[in-house]
């Protein structure tokens, strides 16, 4: 019996820096093998790239309601009742190339279109497929939509067949060198590799006697495990009756999986005591296989690979049709299994191997044929092959119908910000970071930043997205460049002794991003006192909202200083995708993924009631939008005649903000909006209207939010009171207004309107977007980031402060972003050049209003009473939701006070 060893990867098999990645596992709940392979890949991802985020998507679930149940029922029926039909289909794939091609195209188009939203929502840097229809969908997406992140397929059967292997993918991985010729015939030109069996690390050789003791088996008998997958297919009862008849030297362990009927029938079998042990679902299969002297199975899938990894000899008994017979034949030819066709042959095989003989000695296979870490580094580092190496029609950069290169279409919400950009209104968001010197005492340099980006960009697909045209009538598209020039995205300005760098940052935010390359840029301001530096980071709004930008920025930070991924990466509900520990969309673990719109999978009646509730909420929101009317007229709003911007910043102590919020019974977001309203009242030019309309970004479920790409937040229109009033009264008014907006369905309705606008031809979509996103409908933009961020390091330099920067709109010259950074709330105020004189007064008014509110609170209740009336310092939720933001930032302590880009 041969078993693959698990040596340490050879030198050079790992990247120089173990950069965390976002990896999407495309699997399916049909049998247990596809998910088992996915779990093994997930385990290696975390071992190879600590801190990575792994999402799961169930291909059959996303293909439509009832598809998974229908496919599982068809599969069980074919294997158990009509094996000739299953064999006919399988054989036809091999015999008729046209049949295989057309079948793969049909299922690929079906699965690919349904997988696209889940892939886009998770924003993976790497995609691994363990299910043939998922691989077909990925291949279709690459050919027709330009999906160009590295993608690979792992064949969880020993013998591949045409549905397993695709030339369009970057790597198709089989588990033994003998499977390579089969895979090459199945899909000529496919890039192939070999890895060790894709099973969890727990499947390894060990002490057989100790394992038998842990499993409660008879130490005086030779354990023979009969396991035929989660469905318990095939002639299981026939095999067990024959094995039980061998005598007391053998103890038969029947693993029935999810086949309760099989378990009930076997428990009724009359066998001498101790000869037959019936197990249903086994949680500790590694220990059971180590205890076994022999495994009897019938398909050659995941169970056979797990036995191979643990060094347990395998006998294939009456293999099931099609892929089972092919697996058995190839494993037998490779010397990794024996095949028995009838009870007598099975008994003879077991007697020869077990009775009166010691366990078979394990012979290790040399590591050279196997890709380390199951081939994950090979996939991550794979570059597009030379054009001559790729078969015609399979090339990722091949032409789509109409002669244009394939590209991934922008979502309507992302294309919106491409359409509303104008020569005087650049749609770019970002952060200004203030950094201390590196640990060695020297300031951060452009070379440090460039080196950091050169290491990280290959693992961050978001920063390699480039806009391309898809024709006059279609939304723009994305292509993902496999390589990016880090130096081309970093500028440096060295300032003199009396220059704080504010003018350089203003110029940076005044210049629009070039759209012929990935639309993001960084500016390093050096020469500041005490070795400090400033780094401004901006991204085009079409790349993402503030939460997305935060996620990207975190991935550029040094790994050792990142906040743990579960709390640091805000998340939102996405179709069948969730963090790795939720196992969303796959039948692994107890959790099930939320569906679009937050509708949970459950009984049909529950789903119908939830859909009806969502429909009623959206209808109320549409009515609210229809009756809102235009924004108030204000001298603040004027056409922006120049792209020039000025950025002003301020810090507010978090302890004071939280104390004031608790005293007012408000969320800190509501308090900060109220302070903004008070500050605008102080600086608003006369005549001031009684209220101003602010666009306020909202994320309804940030804890589950996965993407680092795309605009996923919604928005509500919020009327800010400008009349002179007590600070507490203003907080109360804002709190009521905001909570009413959240409960009105406006967020859901606005999302529906955005998607509906995206269904229009591109020129009409652009016209509608430019009409909506103007001073006709809003006066100011206010964004709040709820997630606090702790101290990070960027290329070794500690981050002191992080200030968010938001984008303006046509006729809207004021954008205010708020971010919690450790002990402070950082506020960035971006103004049109024409309002630059109001900047210092505006940020000073924010602090003055907070001081006024605290004085009012202390006078009314006393400082001690206020502290006892609150909670432990957390932020109260608003109606069960948390409020997102259209900003991007990181974290770090900063002294309180008003400052100018400091």
Automatic annotation (TrEMBL):
<dbReference type="Pfam" id="PF04101">
    <property type="entry name" value="Glyco_tran_28_C"/>
</dbReference>
<feature type="domain" description="Glycosyl transferase family 28 C-terminal">
    <location>
        <begin position="224"/>
        <end position="339"/>
    </location>
</feature>
<dbReference type="InterPro" id="IPR050519">
    <property type="entry name" value="Glycosyltransf_28_UgtP"/>
</dbReference>
<feature type="domain" description="Diacylglycerol glucosyltransferase N-terminal">
    <location>
        <begin position="40"/>
        <end position="176"/>
    </location>
</feature>
<dbReference type="InterPro" id="IPR009695">
    <property type="entry name" value="Diacylglyc_glucosyltr_N"/>
</dbReference>
<dbReference type="InterPro" id="IPR023213">
    <property type="entry name" value="CAT-like_dom_sf"/>
</dbReference>
<dbReference type="InterPro" id="IPR004255">
    <property type="entry name" value="O-acyltransferase_WSD1_N"/>
</dbReference>
<keyword id="KW-0808">Transferase</keyword>
<comment type="similarity">
    <text>Belongs to the glycosyltransferase 28 family.</text>
</comment>
<feature type="region of interest" description="Disordered">
    <location>
        <begin position="384"/>
        <end position="406"/>
    </location>
</feature>
<feature type="domain" description="O-acyltransferase WSD1-like N-terminal">
    <location>
        <begin position="410"/>
        <end position="667"/>
    </location>
</feature>
<dbReference type="Pfam" id="PF06974">
    <property type="entry name" value="WS_DGAT_C"/>
</dbReference>
<dbReference type="Pfam" id="PF03007">
    <property type="entry name" value="WS_DGAT_cat"/>
</dbReference>
<dbReference type="Pfam" id="PF06925">
    <property type="entry name" value="MGDG_synth"/>
</dbReference>
<feature type="compositionally biased region" description="Low complexity">
    <location>
        <begin position="565"/>
        <end position="598"/>
    </location>
</feature>
<feature type="region of interest" description="Disordered">
    <location>
        <begin position="623"/>
        <end position="644"/>
    </location>
</feature>
<protein>
    <submittedName>
        <fullName>Wax ester/triacylglycerol synthase domain-containing protein</fullName>
    </submittedName>
</protein>
<feature type="region of interest" description="Disordered">
    <location>
        <begin position="864"/>
        <end position="902"/>
    </location>
</feature>
<dbReference type="InterPro" id="IPR007235">
    <property type="entry name" value="Glyco_trans_28_C"/>
</dbReference>
<dbReference type="InterPro" id="IPR009721">
    <property type="entry name" value="O-acyltransferase_WSD1_C"/>
</dbReference>
<keyword id="KW-0328">Glycosyltransferase</keyword>
<feature type="compositionally biased region" description="Low complexity">
    <location>
        <begin position="623"/>
        <end position="642"/>
    </location>
</feature>
<feature type="region of interest" description="Disordered">
    <location>
        <begin position="558"/>
        <end position="610"/>
    </location>
</feature>
<feature type="domain" description="O-acyltransferase WSD1 C-terminal">
    <location>
        <begin position="710"/>
        <end position="853"/>
    </location>
</feature>
């Amino acid at each position: 019996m041969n078993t693959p060893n698990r040596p340490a990867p050879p030198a050079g098999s790992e990247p120089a820096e173990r950069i965390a990645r976002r990896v999407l596992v495309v699997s399916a709940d049909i049998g247990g093998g596809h998910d088992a392979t996915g779990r093994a890949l997930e385990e290696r991802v975390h071992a190879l790239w600590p801190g990575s985020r792994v999402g799961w998507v169930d291909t059959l679930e996303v293909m439509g309601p009832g598809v998974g149940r229908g496919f599982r029922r068809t599969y069980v029926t074919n294997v158990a009742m009509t094996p000739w039909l299953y064999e006919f289909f399988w054989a036809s794939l091999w015999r008729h190339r046209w049949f295989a091609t057309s079948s793969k195209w049909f299922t690929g188009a079906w699965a690919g279109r349904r997988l696209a939203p889940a892939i886009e929502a998770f924003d993976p840097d790497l995609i691994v497929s363990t299910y043939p229809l998922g691989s077909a969908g990925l291949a279709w997406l690459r050919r027709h939509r330009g999906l160009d992140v590295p993608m690979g397929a792992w064949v969880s059967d020993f013998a591949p067949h045409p549905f397993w292997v695709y030339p369009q993918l970057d790597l198709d991985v089989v588990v033994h060198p003998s499977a390579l010729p089969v895979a090459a015939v199945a899909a000529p030109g496919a890039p192939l590799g070999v890895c060790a069996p894709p099973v969890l690390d727990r499947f390894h050789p060990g002490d057989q006697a100790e394992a038998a003791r842990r499993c409660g088996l008879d130490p005086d008998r030779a354990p023979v495990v009969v396991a035929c997958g989660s469905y318990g297919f095939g002639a299981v009862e026939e095999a067990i009756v024959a094995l039980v008849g061998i005598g007391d030297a053998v103890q038969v362990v029947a693993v029935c999986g999810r086949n309760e009927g099989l378990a009930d029938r076997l428990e009724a079998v009359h066998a001498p005591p101790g000869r037959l042990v019936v197990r249903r679902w086994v949680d500790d299969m590694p220990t059971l296989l180590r205890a076994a002297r022999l495994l009897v199975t019938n398909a050659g899938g995941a169970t056979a690979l797990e036995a191979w990894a643990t060094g347990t000899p395998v006998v294939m008994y009456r293999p099931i049709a099609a892929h089972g017979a092919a697996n058995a034949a190839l494993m037998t030819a490779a010397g990794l299994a024996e095949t028995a066709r009838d009870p007598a042959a099975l008994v003879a095989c077991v007697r020869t191997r077990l009775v009166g003989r010691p366990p078979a000695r394990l012979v290790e296979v040399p590591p050279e044929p196997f890709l380390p870490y199951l081939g994950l580094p090979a996939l991550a580092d794979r570059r597009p092959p030379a054009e001559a190496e790729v078969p015609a029609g399979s090339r990722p950069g091949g032409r789509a119908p109409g002669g244009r290169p394939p590209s991934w279409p922008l979502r309507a919400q992302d294309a919106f910000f491409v359409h509303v950009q104008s020569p005087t209104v650049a749609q770019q968001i970002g952060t200004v970071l203030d950094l201390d010197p590196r640990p060695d005492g020297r300031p951060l340099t452009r070379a440090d930043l460039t080196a950091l980006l050169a290491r990280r960009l290959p693992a961050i697909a978001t920063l390699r997205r480039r806009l391309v045209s898809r024709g006059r009538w279609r939304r723009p598209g994305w292509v993902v460049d496999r390589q990016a020039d880090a130096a081309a995205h970093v500028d440096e300005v060295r300032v003199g002794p009396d220059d704080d760098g504010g003018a350089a940052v203003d110029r940076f935010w005044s210049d629009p991003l070039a759209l012929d390359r990935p639309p993001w840029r960084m500016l390093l301001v050096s020469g500041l006192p005490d070795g400090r530096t400033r780094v401004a980071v901006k991204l085009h709004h079409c790349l993402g909202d503030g939460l997305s930008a935060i996620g990207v920025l975190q991935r550029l930070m040094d790994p050792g200083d990142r906040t743990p991924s579960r709390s640091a990466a805000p998340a939102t509900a996405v179709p069948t995708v969730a963090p790795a520990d939720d196992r969303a969309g796959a039948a692994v673990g107890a959790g099930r993924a939320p569906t679009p719109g937050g509708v949970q999978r459950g009984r049909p009646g529950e789903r119908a009631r939830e859909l009806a509730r969502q429909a009623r909420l959206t209808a109320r929101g549409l009515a609210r939008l229809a009756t809102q009317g235009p924004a108030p007229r204000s001298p603040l709003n004027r056409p922006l005649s120049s792209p020039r911007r000025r950025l002003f910043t301020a810090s507010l102590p978090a302890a004071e903000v939280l104390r004031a919020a608790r005293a007012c019974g408000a969320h800190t977001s509501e308090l900060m909006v109220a302070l903004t309203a008070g500050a605008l009242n102080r600086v608003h030019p006369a005549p001031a209207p009684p209220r101003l309309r602010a666009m306020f970004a909202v994320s309804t479920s940030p804890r589950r939010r996965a993407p680092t790409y795309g605009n996923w937040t919604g928005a509500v229109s919020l009327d800010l009171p400008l009349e002179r009033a007590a600070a507490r009264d203003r907080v109360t008014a804002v709190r009521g207004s905001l909570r009413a907006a959240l409960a009105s369905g406006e967020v859901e309705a606005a999302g529906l309107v955005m998607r509906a606008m995206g269904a229009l031809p591109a020129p009409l979509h652009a016209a509608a977007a430019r009409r909506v996103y103007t001073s006709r409908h809003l006066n100011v933009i206010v964004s709040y980031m709820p997630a606090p961020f702790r101290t990070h390091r960027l290329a070794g330099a500690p981050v002191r402060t992080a200030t968010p920067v938001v984008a303006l709109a046509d006729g809207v010259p004021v954008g205010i972003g708020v971010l919690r950074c450790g002990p402070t709330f950082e506020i960035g105020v971006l103004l049109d050049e024409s309002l630059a004189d109001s900047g210092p007064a505006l940020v000073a008014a924010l602090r003055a209003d907070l001081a006024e509110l605290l004085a009012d609170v202390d006078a009314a209740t006393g400082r001690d009473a206020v502290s006892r009336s609150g909670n432990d310092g957390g932020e109260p939720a608003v109606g069960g939701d948390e409020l997102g933001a259209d900003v991007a930032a990181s974290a770090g302590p900063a002294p309180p006070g008003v400052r100018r880009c400091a």
